[in-house]
Amino acid sequence: MVFSRMRASSGLPCAQADLDHVERIVTASGTSFARGMRILPADRRQAMFAVYAFCRQVDDIADGDAGVADPMAALQDWHQRIDRLYEGVATDALDRTLIVAIHRYQLQAKDFHDVIDGMAMDCGAPIVAPDEATLDLYCDRVASAVGRLSVCVFGDSSDNARRVAYHLGRALQLTNILRDIAEDAARGRLYLPSELLTRFDVPKDPHEALYAHGLDHVARILAERAKDHFRAARAAMQMCNSRAMRPARMMAASYAPILSALEKRGWKTPDIAPKVSKPWRKLRTLAAYVK
């Protein structure tokens, strides 16, 4: 692979134009992810930008923001594109940067494919009252799979690091679901598990569920699950490379106060934003690439 102009040796061995293109995808998304990743060395930060840019592109396809006529076909194209990356075939700047990140940090193809499959679950008919197994699979694909890619870039690919990804991804995604119940209902979505909805007599229609008496009970059970995942993630972090886990610790620290604020507000008025303590509002943007 020949580059016309190279990034400084501290960064990924990619053409400057390719790295700039990937960074533009990140900054154009309007998130604070780029600022949050400043704690990483240049090469790891650039690799995370590439992972985020991939996530952003497939997420935009699933949400209908990519302007493609057939989103499911476009996601299938991404499956094929990932396979080509592992054969060393690149067609654009993001591909070239991803290939370097894949080889430098030993990123697994299955994790990329899992993310695409997670986006496909949101493509087409909205998810409404999935069963417990489907909800867990969704959380694994759209959040924990991103975590599995991320911990490798952060610098720890051990089994314990994968446990961090497993638990922290679920903790963050459940928090997102509990935070966005009203927003999701407006889109005809309801990510709460059917078993709990039935148990507490909550309608499985997203709009009817929004102010059902039992919604608070359902949400509090899921909040306890999220807290269990936070605890398990922190325990696994203790057995990992401490420096590599810095971004993961910050993400956990940014989301835990959101969950606490949600519990304090409750879910009898889910359309009212929870009051998150000010010191944590900037930190929470570090987890913007999840969901």
Automatic annotation (TrEMBL):
Protein name per the record: Squalene synthase HpnD
Keywords: Transferase
Pfam assignment, any one: SQS_PSY
InterPro entries tied to this protein: Isoprenoid_synthase_dom_sf, SQ_synth_HpnD-like, Squ/phyt_synthse, Squalene/phytoene_synthase_CS, Trans_IPPS_bact-type, Trans_IPPS_HH
Naturally occurring in which organism (per UniProt): Gluconobacter roseus NBRC 3990
An individual GO BP term: carotenoid biosynthetic process
Domain of life: Bacteria
Annotated GO MF terms: geranylgeranyl diphosphate synthase activity; squalene synthase [NAD(P)H] activity
